[in-house]
Amino acid sequence: MYENVVLGIAHEAVLTVLLVSAPILGAALLTGLIISILQATTQIQEMTLVFVPKIVIVLLVVIIFGPWMLNILTTFTYNLFAAIPQMLAL
Fold first, then answer.
1. Residues 61, 63, 66, 68: is their CA dihedral positive or negative?
2. pLDDT by residue (tens digit) across 50-70?
3. Is-above-0.85 flag for pTM?
């Protein structure tokens, strides 16, 4: 019985982490891909060229999607705390 509760919490936690990290990782991936294509076409082989645009894009994504990410995290935490009495009854 307790295994189902723990696996359910772990499942919800993994889904929450995936939802929260997806916009940041997607933006960083897309930015890196675009800059890599730009470097390949212009034959500029500077390794540090990728970092500044990636940092700026990730910062913008965090600013834009920050309230949504915070809402997802607070909803998960609220639901987790609200389920504590039900878990103790088992």
1. negative
2. 899 999 999 999 999 999 999
3. no
